[in-house]
Amino acid sequence: MPEKIWSTIKAEINEQILHEPVLASFFSKRVHQHDSLESAMSDLLASKLASDDVPVSTIKQLMLEAFLQDSSLINSVLNDLVATKQRDPAVRSHADILLYYKGFQAVQAYRVANWLWRQKRENLALYIQSLSSQVFAVDIHPAAQIGSGIMVDHATGIVIGETSVLENNISIMQGSNTWRDRQ
């Protein structure tokens, strides 16, 4: 499934380049220069979460390490992509979710922070959480337990605390209204 979604994203980007050639360099940097969703996701998150204290290359390598060492992370990314595409009527493409949807991006940053937390690298996990909160305006504690198939709409101001448990197939709509899909 990862290769199928990745191929779909690349095809969507090819179509978007035809409609908006001004963004060709952006699309190339964020999608075409990568051979996998893991690499693209790591690069995208690193570009957003890097700081003067920890450079892009370090964050990117850390993210990629997490995705490659724990296949459940990329499976959750895929499930989140599919869930967002299915449940958010404003979504046009998987590529749009990957590149522009900060709720999706915040959840993926959480997934890496949670992986770090479980590796007993709590300070680094909290560092990623802090940056993610600043960048995405979404605060998800790295010890929270979040399933896959998560769709977060808009996301601004959402706080998911340390003891929170969100099961699979949860949608969070504009702040505090939540509902669970019955599948």
Helices and strands in order, then pairings?
Layout: H1 2-19, H2 24-32, H3 37-49, H4 56-69, H5 71-87, H6 94-100, H7 102-118, H8 122-136, E1 139-140, E2 145-146, E3 151-153, E4 159-160, E5 165-166, E6 170-173, E7 177-180
Parallel strand pairs: 1-4, 2-5, 3-6
Antiparallel strand pairs: 6-7
Structural class: mainly alpha
Order of helices and strands: HHHHHHHHEEEEEEE
Summed up, the helix count is 8
Q: What average pLDDT do the residues reach?
A: 93
Shape: globular
The CATH architecture can be given as: Orthogonal Bundle
Q: Mind telling me the C-alpha Rg? A: 15 Å
Spatial strand order of the main sheet: 3-6-7
Strand content: 5-15%
Overall number of domains: 1
Largest sheet: 3 strands, mixed
Helix content: 55-70%
CATH superfamily: serine acetyltransferase, domain 1
Counting DSSP E segments of at least 2 residues, the number of strands comes to 7
Describe this structure in words.
The chain is mainly α. 60% of the residues lie in helices and 10% in strands. It has one domain (2-136): Orthogonal Bundle (serine acetyltransferase, domain 1), CATH 1.10.3130. The chain is built from eight helices and seven strands, in the order ααααααααβββββββ. Helix 4 (56-69) packs across helix 7, helix 5 (71-87) runs antiparallel to helix 7 and helix 7 runs antiparallel to helix 8. It is globular and about 45 Å long. It starts with a helix and ends with a strand.
